[in-house]
Fold this sequence. Notes:
Layout: H1 2-33, H2 38-71, H3 79-90
Amino acid sequence: MVGRRLIARIGRAVVGPFLAIVLIIYFALNLVEGDHGLMAWLRRAHQVQDAEATRAATDLELAQLRHRADLLKGNRLDPDLLDERSRAALNAIGRDEIVIFTPPAQVVAKPIN
């Protein structure tokens, strides 16, 4: 009888703090590693930076393509660009011309800080 009371008293004294510690550990772990925790927040911040850099590079490429399209419009046609594009499309050159192919310039986007 004394043994049961002692075990019950010890059980009540241990179970409450044990459950509290387990809950604190659970919430602390979710704070760091959970779906909306600190690590997820850092990953999303990195994804946002990558997306902004990609968008900046795409905006630059779009501006370059729009500029080239504007040069081909009828009211302000650039003869050099028209000559270049027609020779590239027809794969033709003059008898006294030399063609030197160069790789296109690579656009390196700098991340916005």
